[in-house]
Amino acid sequence: MKDVKILIVDDSPFQIAMLRDIITESGFDVVGEAKCLEEVIEEVSRLKPDLVTMDMTLPGTDGFECTRAIHKINKDIKVIIVSSMMDEELVRKAKKTHVCGYIQKPVDQEELSLLINRVMADEELYLELEGLYSNVFKEAVLNLFNRLTKTMPEITDESNDDIAIHSEGISIVMGITGKYSGRLILDMSFGTAKSLAAVLLKREPENNEELLNVMSEIANMFAGNACSMINKKNKLFGLRVAPPTTFHGESINISKAELENTYSANVKSQFGDLAINIGFKRGDGEWMSIM
């Protein structure tokens, strides 16, 4: 990552001194400071920072007005709110103002450093994800079967084509958020699901609701374990999984998600075949904060 030039915006000399020490000790370059809207406009135009830390309460203005002024000068400058105040309304307004993150005072050095690095992560980080995620998800699904059933399935029919998916009967879709957003789909027939669930429950599923619940939890463990493995390789990814959405029935088709990178494969197990499809795309992904 390139050297990051940071401008501190705060009306408190004490807070400026603290932030300067924290940011400098974290390896970033503090190029200046500003205490009001006029100084923000002047210093951003003069210093051309990569990122601005923004207090919310400033004389005659607020962090949102200052952020809008910054983006009129250069929309690519990143802004992180650093404020003693944090609530749902402020966070909602911050997102609408295209703030990149929100952290509450008193600031923890490690959290602020991670947030700055995550916000400023460049193409190199995405290429790192692109190069590792398919192998990690393969490892995760094999580990999951081994732990749950003491069996080892075979991975076949691997592909990187982004195509619509025709379900075999049950499709569990999970969103992935973090520095980059993505999607995971686990698909199988009812027969495969029943065979697998019977082993896990040590009895036949009582009804379809229980069957679908078991399959959803399998997808949740699969996605969560894989994302945890990726985060261990580089914590800047900050990947998280959203709750699963389950579709079931005949003639279910899932359209392409317009992902930039996709990986699909068939998981041949002794319980039947399962299809996996995972993909990611560039972009802002999840709005980053410490909440």
Could you describe the 3D structure shown?
The chain is an alpha/beta fold and 291 residues long. It folds into 2 domains: 5-120, Rossmann fold, CATH 3.40.50.2300; 124-289, Chemotaxis protein chec (3-Layer(aba) Sandwich), CATH 3.40.1550. Helices cover 42% and strands 28% of the residues. It has 8 helices and 17 strands. The strands form 4 sheets. Strands 8, 10, 11, 12, 13, 15 and 16 form a 7-stranded antiparallel β-sheet that branches. A 6-stranded parallel β-sheet has the order 2-1-3-6-7-17, with helices on both faces. Helix 4 (88-96) links the parallel strand 6 and strand 7. The radius of gyration is 23 Å and the shape is elongated. Residues 287-291 have low confidence and may be disordered. Residues 5-120 form the Response regulatory domain. The modification 4-aspartylphosphate is found at residue 55. Pfam families: CheX (PF13690), Response_reg (PF00072). It comes from Clostridium vincentii. This is Stage 0 sporulation protein A homolog.
